[in-house]
Amino acid sequence: MYGIIATWRMALEGISKADSMLKNNESAANSIEEAIKAVENFEYYKSVGYGGLPNEEMEVELDAAFMDGDTLEFGCVGGVKDFANPVSIARSLMHYDANNFLVGQGAEKYASRHGFERKTMLTDRAKIHYHNRIKEITNTELKPYSGHDTVGMVCLDTAGHMTCATSTSGLFMKHPGRLGDSPVCGSGFYVDSFVGGASATGLGEDVMKGCVSYEIVRLMKEGMHPQQACEKAVHDFDLELKRRRGKAGDMSLIAMNNKGEWGCATNIEGFSFVVATEKQAPTVYLVNHDADGKCTFEVASKEWMDNYMALRTAPLVRK
């Protein structure tokens, strides 16, 4: 049995690549890294890697994480500029006894010393998005932060090993140096090969308040199916934030257990995810949720898929 699940439609190409690797008994670690890199390297996915959305000073700062479910080792980077694949840098940090989470210039110095590829990550498309957003903010007082999607994945290989990984450029127009949940163990990701794993996308500041990825794994450890665990964790914490603060930010979580069973829950409209298992070809699902936090899924139609890619690759004009 093998399986891999990821946040958002943008993961489809990477999941398809990982599915082929897992089918040929490749490790969960190598498969998930290649799947994340496929998202990082595609400039039209504007919330991850090359072409990622810049901060308020028009700089692309990237966050990523990698975790091994067998050993519970993890590696994380935050605020990395001008390196091509932050997920690979994060994976390399996983094997040290200390210094597993590096940020900013420290992470960049480490990456340079260890031969990771330097690359200018700010693209012309991202510059247009930035300048258009500046004008929108001036004219309509639109919140600058709208537009942030983390790619997060959980993977199980045929040997029973599990991994999880994340990568993101974070909030659009964020303050320089801002970190969200994506590189934070227990919040943006968590995996235990004896149980399963989970990963998050959404408003990191709120996901971190509840360590929601860890909570889902904890619930699975108590015997819950991944779907039940996702729904309970997301719905309960959404209600808790609203009770305490009057509002809750976007939260969408995916999970897979060590049997290859999977689940997903969200508190927003329009969330999508991708899953592939030994018995299921890579499939994109659209998620609907009700007031009680129950989620239903539908396979994305060809029309939806065509529109998704057309929208993301359409020529941009500076306003």
Automatic annotation (TrEMBL):
Superkingdom of source: Bacteria
Molecular function terms, GO-annotated: hydrolase activity, acting on carbon-nitrogen (but not peptide) bonds, in linear amides; peptidase activity
Site (Cleavage) location in chain: 149-150
Keyword terms of this UniProt record: Autocatalytic cleavage, Hydrolase, Protease
Binding site for substrate: 178-181, 201-204
Active site: 150
Name of this protein: Asparaginase
Species name: Holdemanella biformis DSM 3989
